[in-house]
Amino acid sequence: MSRKPTLVFVPGAWHNADTWDKITSLMEAEQYKSIRVALPSATPNPSATFLEDIKAVRNSIVAETIEGRDVVVVAHSYGGIVGSSAIKGLVRQKQDVSLSANDLSGHVLGIVMLASGFIPTGVSFLDGFGGKPPPSWKADVQSGFATIAVDPRDLFYHDLPTEEGNYWVSKLEKQSLKALAEGGEHAYAGWMDVPVWYLATTEDKALPIQAQRMFVQIAKDAGADVTLREVESSHSPMLSKPKETADFILEAVTSFVG
């Protein structure tokens, strides 16, 4: 089995897989296979569900593990909830360590989270964040989409050059409200099963740094193995601080591989 695990990248709500391009280029230069997952809920389909998002990520993981390759999940924002849920049953159990020499399948080694949260098993994304949308977006029940209620460039990309920030605003997708508000029965606290490295974004206007630090502490208090680092960035460090983010991911993966 190759020493270098496959990296499976999961975007946040409203975002498509292209937001990972800067990072995957840097990872591939370091000889890491990188797979970017497009989430079904970030499409013009208001009926897309949280479970569909989980399945999209899980399918990408299983396609690697059945070939004997280990996997690290790298997830941003809402994608952290999806990624954690997708790894259920795909980690190496402690009692299986003695059998590892005969185990030809790969496993999920860890999760890298960027500006995300830790949702308990059985709790939907929205319920995990207090049960109602924050001021930055609203639940448009009539259309079935979660709609951004503030300037999206300021919310997500305020530290990017204006032209680049506007480009990424133009790339934002519609976001299924159903995926954010429902499906808690499919949520799984995979962050309790593997080590997590968490990159907190200190200039974040979508998920304030105080909330991120609180989420990390709650996860640690629950018994999770979380390593916290911080970067001076907006909600989108993979775009505004790609080198720092890539270096963080490389350090995390090295830790997971051991």
UniProtKB/TrEMBL annotation:
InterPro entries: AB_hydrolase_1, AB_hydrolase_fold, Sec-Metab_Biosynth_Hydrolase. GO terms for molecular function: hydrolase activity. Keywords: Hydrolase. Residues 7-247 form the AB hydrolase-1 domain. The keyword Iron-sulfur does not apply. It comes from the Eukaryota. PANTHER family: AB HYDROLASE-1 DOMAIN-CONTAINING PROTEIN (PTHR37017:SF3), AB HYDROLASE-1 DOMAIN-CONTAINING PROTEIN-RELATED (PTHR37017). This is Alpha/beta-hydrolase. The lineage of its organism: Eukaryota, Fungi, Dikarya, Ascomycota, Pezizomycotina.
